[in-house]
């Protein structure tokens, strides 16, 4: 399939493979919160196979049942990428993203939200991984090496221009150009701040939580997060236990995982105020822009954070316009991939709201570190008020795992988006026929 | 499987069947608009098979590619309904809906939006069809025969209480109780207003449009709708042609199908103002609550309408709170089925905004007529400013097709939700192996 084009051979995408991979995390209550009592962290794992050179890898993170639906959705995009020239630059990556988002028949299934949009994100991310691998650069450096004009060219400004115009985006990027090299060097030396949310799962008993909080402090983290929202008395007791053990210097965020209505959120958050929560995450429905704004006004100066379930750039635009969030938690696999996340980073920069990405799950730490580092090098030039969630599990399944040292993410240096899983992990955890599922003690979840 | 429970046998759901049905409508440009140039109107058709008595039928309307993803999503819900007792009353229907929406692992794929939520809608609608069939009543009468308390019990008030409380909903329903019988009789005699959008597809040449508009007027419709948004000159010429032929008495709505950014929408709509558009539908992204509100303020007194892509009750709540819409176009298969649409009707009633359902597609006219008639009998008691979209195609595939006479929907009298398709239609149009696809001249669209 390789075609000679003068000196260069034009590589093409041969196939889009997708695998249902599930980890039985519910057995230990890892990942439990007020809305998700027993997740099995999973991935619809997508591979763009090429006719020569490296392949590209992407995934959608899900929490178990329905991962097969997500796999079907990724597969439905094959006709838009198979046979295509391997994208190598900003223009080709923007065109690929536009073709996926713009398929008029598939668009009906969103538009730009839910299963179909997350599938687009996986394929777009695989294409970015592919391009960065072929450029021999980690994604954050590949992206931060583009010109301001190229980066603006990635953004789909449809529905954004009342909040951010191409000229405004260009001005933001140009202002950050002078310090790019110095900030790249700083990241390679000192990394990027992280915070620990492994200690705070709602299914953990107090003693386990306190032990894990102490371990996180000892490892160098200066911020942790607790899940809240099931029972106010429990939340107050857990916060008190943590404050008793870490003092008032450490930042303690709380995360309600969409548990509350607006009036309940206001009451509950204000009841927790004496423990100085650093931010309150997902106080209500991720769709409720006006609700977030009402809560933010009523609980100030406590910050409101959201993003892991915010389904596209139009929703982020409004959360920023309405003052609904003062911390923006972008997600690597909820929206349409790297391309849409560039738009979201530019929106956040326009409104002066720090981005603190959502991570954990499967491969999210691996991916979002690249986006935060790109933001630092080429968009905002700042780490102030910024930190990346860190959850220390499932990294062993990735060829280029995310790493923290002294509470900071170590800047990745391997080419690509850190999205490739070990073939042996994919084989073992494939659902329902991989050996981890066929030989498991507990029955696999339906269907 | 039937179990004797005293005198009565308890019927159970044996299976959830789902079929990929596609109609090759793109061959004639039926259904073409500014964002959807060549739809193949399709359905993920769901059947709740029972061990005795009637089965229940539901569907998700899609426009072609991706219908297989929708089929997979419906199938992923089987474990929540198979083996369940056939729901017979409001409490059982509310419980079934809550179980589907509340599955914590599947919820991650939305939450409450996109492919997974539409799948829930199909199954919930099939359950309502089942219950109404067994009660021997058309759905609108089955639903309007419930007590105010039973109807309030259907509503999931999570995320709604800042706009609508259970007590407020109860008060709305109680106020409408006195006239229920008289309004039921009025519907059976005189039907419910409809409007025609078949004439206005954007792919039709002017002559065909004018001919179809005249036919609609002759058939008794006093309102039509035109697709707009591709080219302003074309839109102005088409509006002028229509006004030249129907005069100023007939209401002419226009539909931009999400084509514009906020500033463009304002300019474009005001340019069309001289032709007195009755409403402007989907001027921008269905997610853009604040954008709709800005447009509505800038184009008043022209009404802004939206709903066919508004993905759940939380979004409708905000569109109403922000003044973003003055016409609410609920959809039968975008949200979580009849149950969530009851919540949406109550929200609209609270804010005094008329509901004019989106229809057309596959089976949408059949379904939404029941919801509009329920609204008239038991919620608002009014037909003022209310009308149901009418598109005259694909009805022949339904056992109990929607019917209009003199521009009004005839109240359905057959038991159920009018969702059952003829088995022969399902067989012929099954994708990709039904004879309409295997013997078609043009190649079938990719999966």
Question: Quick gist of this model?
Answer:
2 copies of one chain form a homodimer. Chain A has 2 domains: 3-136 and 425-438, Enolase-like, domain 1 (2-Layer Sandwich); 167-422, Enolase-like C-terminal domain (TIM Barrel, Alpha-Beta Barrel).
Q: Can you characterise this structure?
A:
The structure is a homodimer of 447-residue chains. With 447 residues, the first copy, chain A, is an alpha/beta fold. Helices cover 42% and strands 15% of the residues of chain A. Chain A folds into two domains: 3-136 and 425-438, Enolase-like, N-terminal domain (Enolase-like, domain 1), CATH 3.30.390; 167-422, Enolase-like C-terminal domain (TIM Barrel, Alpha-Beta Barrel). The first copy, chain A, has helices at 67-75, 78-81, 90-102, 104-107, 114-135, 139-144, 148-154, 166-175, 180-190, 206-218, 232-246, 262-272, 289-299, 313-321, 337-351, 364-379, 423-429, 435-438, and strands spanning 3-5, 8-10, 13-22, 42-50, 56-62, 192-196, 223-227, 251-255, 277-281, 303-306, 327-328, 388-390, 404-405, 408-409. In chain A, the strands form four sheets. In chain A, strands 7-8-9-10-11 form a five-stranded parallel β-sheet. Chain A has a four-stranded mixed β-sheet with strand order 12-6-14-13, covered by helices on one side. Chain A has a three-stranded antiparallel β-sheet with strand order 3-4-5, sandwiched between helices. The model of chain A is unreliable at 1-7 (pLDDT under 50). At the A-B interface, helix 1, helix 4, helix 5, helix 13 and helix 14 of A face helix 1, helix 4, helix 5, helix 13 and helix 14 of B.
